[in-house]
Amino acid sequence: MADLQIIVEVQDNQTISNFSIPPSGKLVFKNGAAKGMGDLEIKPKSPTIELPFCKSNGKDPESLPMIAPGDDATVYICSNFTDRFFYTAQIGQAAIEDPIVIIEKSKNLSLDPLAALFIGAGIGAALVYLIVKSRANKMRPQQG
Fold this sequence. Notes:
This protein has 1 helix and 8 strands. A hairpin with an 8-residue loop joins β7 and β8. It has 2 domains: 99 residues, Immunoglobulin-like; 35 residues. The N and C termini lie far apart (75 Å). By secondary structure, it is α+β, with helices and mostly antiparallel strands. 18% of the residues lie in helices and 30% in strands.
């Protein structure tokens, strides 16, 4: 699985991020600014009260420290989180960026082969029963 890496940079005195969400839920924030531009600070933005960051187990909350230029920090989206969150990102005195992250966890609806076999056998047996019953009703001798 791919990791989510968010590279936060300064362009025209505006802090900006580029990222995508992977299935792993792993987030890597990287301060891509040049040395001397300042540390990267990530904070929740209203209506988000607390960022859904956890340790690698997906359960224990974890905060994100300030990130120096050229460094990165890793967190995971908490396993029970399935909504969206808002945050601000700022490097040094550059203008603040305020992206929105939407988390969509899809349900795995795949069927294992053994379960498919049993379901298919059940449907087949039901069809055979209905066919035999239908033919039996048509083949009864008529009384006259």
